[in-house]
Amino acid sequence: MTAPRPDDIPPGAFGPRVAAHVALLHGRYRISHRELVALFADRFKLPISLGSVVALQQVASAALEPAYGEVQQMVATSDHANGDETTWREGTRKPWL
Protein backbone atom coordinates (compact mmCIF):
# COMPACT_ATOMS: atom_id res chain seq x y z
CA MET A 1 0.00 0.00 0.00
CA THR A 2 1.25 3.51 -0.79
CA ALA A 3 0.45 6.82 0.84
CA PRO A 4 -1.81 9.24 -1.02
CA ARG A 5 -0.13 11.95 -3.04
CA PRO A 6 -0.21 15.32 -1.23
CA ASP A 7 -2.38 17.98 -2.88
CA ASP A 8 0.53 20.42 -3.29
CA ILE A 9 2.58 17.95 -5.36
CA PRO A 10 1.97 18.37 -9.11
CA PRO A 11 0.99 15.27 -11.08
CA GLY A 12 3.52 13.45 -13.20
CA ALA A 13 6.82 11.69 -12.72
CA PHE A 14 9.07 14.75 -13.09
CA GLY A 15 9.38 17.98 -11.19
CA PRO A 16 9.81 21.58 -12.27
CA ARG A 17 13.60 21.37 -12.57
CA VAL A 18 13.43 18.60 -15.15
CA ALA A 19 10.74 20.53 -17.04
CA ALA A 20 12.93 23.65 -17.00
CA HIS A 21 15.95 21.71 -18.27
CA VAL A 22 13.94 20.10 -21.06
CA ALA A 23 12.60 23.51 -22.12
CA LEU A 24 16.04 25.13 -22.00
CA LEU A 25 17.88 22.36 -23.82
CA HIS A 26 15.28 22.01 -26.55
CA GLY A 27 14.25 25.65 -26.92
CA ARG A 28 17.55 27.47 -26.51
CA TYR A 29 20.14 24.84 -27.44
CA ARG A 30 18.01 23.09 -30.11
CA ILE A 31 18.60 19.57 -28.81
CA SER A 32 16.14 17.20 -30.48
CA HIS A 33 13.60 15.17 -28.55
CA ARG A 34 15.49 11.93 -29.15
CA GLU A 35 18.81 13.50 -28.15
CA LEU A 36 17.20 14.78 -24.95
CA VAL A 37 16.06 11.25 -24.11
CA ALA A 38 19.63 10.01 -24.66
CA LEU A 39 21.19 12.91 -22.72
CA PHE A 40 18.98 12.44 -19.67
CA ALA A 41 19.66 8.69 -19.69
CA ASP A 42 23.43 8.99 -20.23
CA ARG A 43 24.28 12.05 -18.16
CA PHE A 44 21.66 12.08 -15.40
CA LYS A 45 20.70 8.38 -15.33
CA LEU A 46 17.10 9.53 -15.68
CA PRO A 47 14.98 7.42 -18.01
CA ILE A 48 12.51 9.64 -19.84
CA SER A 49 10.32 8.87 -22.85
CA LEU A 50 9.72 10.94 -25.96
CA GLY A 51 6.15 11.52 -24.79
CA SER A 52 7.40 12.81 -21.45
CA VAL A 53 9.75 15.24 -23.21
CA VAL A 54 6.80 16.71 -25.13
CA ALA A 55 4.61 16.79 -22.01
CA LEU A 56 7.34 18.60 -20.05
CA GLN A 57 7.67 21.17 -22.84
CA GLN A 58 3.95 21.83 -22.50
CA VAL A 59 4.30 22.18 -18.71
CA ALA A 60 7.10 24.72 -19.17
CA SER A 61 5.12 26.57 -21.82
CA ALA A 62 2.10 26.85 -19.52
CA ALA A 63 4.31 28.07 -16.66
CA LEU A 64 5.80 30.79 -18.89
CA GLU A 65 2.48 31.93 -20.35
CA PRO A 66 1.83 34.73 -17.80
CA ALA A 67 5.30 36.23 -18.32
CA TYR A 68 4.93 35.93 -22.09
CA GLY A 69 1.61 37.77 -21.89
CA GLU A 70 3.23 40.58 -19.89
CA VAL A 71 5.98 40.95 -22.49
CA GLN A 72 3.42 41.01 -25.31
CA GLN A 73 1.47 43.73 -23.52
CA MET A 74 4.58 45.82 -22.89
CA VAL A 75 5.68 45.57 -26.53
CA ALA A 76 2.20 46.41 -27.80
CA THR A 77 2.01 49.56 -25.67
CA SER A 78 5.63 50.63 -26.14
CA ASP A 79 6.49 53.85 -27.96
CA HIS A 80 9.52 52.24 -29.59
CA ALA A 81 10.38 48.81 -30.89
CA ASN A 82 13.87 47.83 -31.96
CA GLY A 83 14.69 45.35 -34.69
CA ASP A 84 17.76 43.18 -34.93
CA GLU A 85 19.61 44.12 -38.12
CA THR A 86 22.37 41.59 -37.66
CA THR A 87 23.31 40.15 -41.04
CA TRP A 88 24.28 36.60 -41.90
CA ARG A 89 25.69 35.06 -45.04
CA GLU A 90 23.62 32.98 -47.50
CA GLY A 91 25.91 32.17 -50.38
CA THR A 92 26.96 35.54 -51.78
CA ARG A 93 24.06 37.46 -50.19
CA LYS A 94 23.96 39.08 -46.75
CA PRO A 95 20.30 39.21 -45.68
CA TRP A 96 19.02 40.63 -42.38
CA LEU A 97 15.78 40.71 -40.45
Helix and strand sequence: HHH
Percent range for β-strand residues: under 5%
Structural class: mainly alpha
Q: What characterizes the major β-sheet?
A: none
Number of helices: 3
Tell me the number of strands: 0
- Could you tell me the mean pLDDT? 90
Bulk shape: flat
Radius of gyration: 19 Å
Key structural traits:
97 residues; 55% helix; mainly alpha
How do the helices and strands line up, and which of them pair or pack?
Blueprint: H1 16-28, H2 33-44, H3 50-77
Helix pairs in contact: 1-3
Structure description:
By secondary structure, this protein is an all-alpha fold. It has a domain at 16-75. The chain is 55% helix and 0% strand. Helix 1 crosses helix 3 (50-77). The radius of gyration is 19 Å and the shape is flat.
Short description:
Helix content is 55%, strand content 0%. The chain has helices at 16-28, 33-44, 50-77.
